[in-house]
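Contributing new records

If you add data, match the layout below exactly. Sequence lines come first and carry their own label; structure lines follow with theirs. Keep one chain per record. Anything else will be rejected by the validation script.
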Amino acid sequence: MTQPEPTADPAQPSAGPVSDLSAEHGQHPLHRRQGGPVPDHVRIVDPAKARAGAARRARTGRAETPLALKRRARRINQELGRAYPYAVAELDFDSPWQLLVATVLSAQTTDVRVNATTPALFERWPDPRGLAEAERTEVEEMLRPLGFYRSKARSAQGLAQAIEDEHDGQVPGRLEDLVKLPGVGRKTANVVLGNAFDVPGITVDTHFGRLARRFGWTGQEDPVKVEHEVGALFEPEDWTDLSHRLVYHGRRICHAKRPACGVCPVADLCPSYGLGPVEQEAAAQLLAYEFKPGREDLLAGYMEGRTRRELRAAGHGLSA
């Protein structure tokens, strides 16, 4: 029998866990404590419950009310917060300048490659003036591992020159100023604002947009429209963490081609349940990064609060 919706203030996340008994940490047969492949802290949803939710939505055919959408969106964010309590920006940085450059360089490559390249870059040219005045060929050679190294060297130096000329060598902390810099769009600006200045922002990358549409939070493809529609469902102070959580979930479980629906912690809250394998054993084989069986030590490091740099120094590979 369907339980009535709670009557609590819909502007606030529901109190307490959303999970049922089978989702208790380490209590499901698929949890690692029981000999299974799924991390103990990850909620596992009863497939019958997930199927019932999807069937109910399909049967009624009614559009979700704005109130119900907001409530469901916040429950999803709450559960993803439990699944990824360590979710942060995956680019290494020690200053707004370093994060801005790293984000610009991350286009069409991986964060892992950027993180392997930027330490030497910033050691050689630690500030905008130094990079702006560097020999182009030397910058190109340092950026060669990232691909498109000539255009990236040109972009990085143009950005450095603009910051030196227009902002006295300091990265501005306002969206309207950041997006005027060469090569900086709203996505890059929001990454910098949210992670280097603690100014709330939603970062709409490929993962965020895909998951926002799968969750039914928006039907838009345009990143700016996605940002605005999703932003309206949450308090601004949640925007940056939400951005990290959707990226983490998109990389580890909700994959583009074969989402691991059977072991998704928000399966019963997702209108797209069933796009990928729903059989739990099969879905568990799709877990990636630190969720992948055999990488328990890496996950333990994250859960203990160790930084990505510390984990790399300890010999852990952080790629998929």
